[in-house]
Amino acid sequence: MAVHERPASRVRPERGDVSEIRLGLADLTPGMPRLVEADGKRVVLLRVGDRVHALSDVCAHKGGPLSEGKLSGTRLACPWHGWMYDVGTGQCVFPGRGAAVPSYPVRIENDEVRVEIS
């Protein structure tokens, strides 16, 4: 087998400092944003049905606290000026100006929510 024909390595590429947030799934109320912090970064966790999403808590518009916003379906509204974000992607959906907030990967293992913050 040639070098380029080997299966891809399962080792993650180095990405610098990575923190992990761990929280019990039962600690997240569906439809209620939950603020958590890791290494000085504010992250809002959102439980929508059987899924959990994680976004930066800082609105791209004026820095409002998204964890204090209202969740409607899969959209989270900033409490300051009403900017709305898709909780799955972090993309701003209103007003549609191409803005976004960082989103973070979420895993659920044995009823424990794990979020990687880099």
Give a brief description:
The chain has strands at 19-24, 34-38, 41-48, 51-56, 70-72, 75-77, 84-86, 92-94, 103-104, 106-109, 112-117. The chain has 118 residues and is mainly beta.
Shape: globular
- What is the first-to-last residue Cα distance? 36 Å
Order of helices and strands: EEEEEEEEEEE
Strand content: 35-45%
Just give the CATH class: Mainly Beta
CATH architecture: 3-layer Sandwich
Bin the helical content: under 10%
Question: Can you characterise this structure?
Answer:
The chain has no helices and 11 strands. With 118 residues, the chain is mainly β. It has one domain: Rieske Iron-sulfur Protein (3-layer Sandwich). The strands form 3 sheets. The protein has a 4-stranded antiparallel β-sheet with strand order 2-3-4-9, with no helix packed on it. Strands 5-6-7-8 form a 4-stranded antiparallel β-sheet, with no helix packed on it. It has a 3-stranded antiparallel β-sheet with strand order 1-11-10, with no helix packed on it. A hairpin with a 2-residue loop joins strand 3 and strand 4. The protein starts with 18 loop residues before the first strand and ends with a strand.
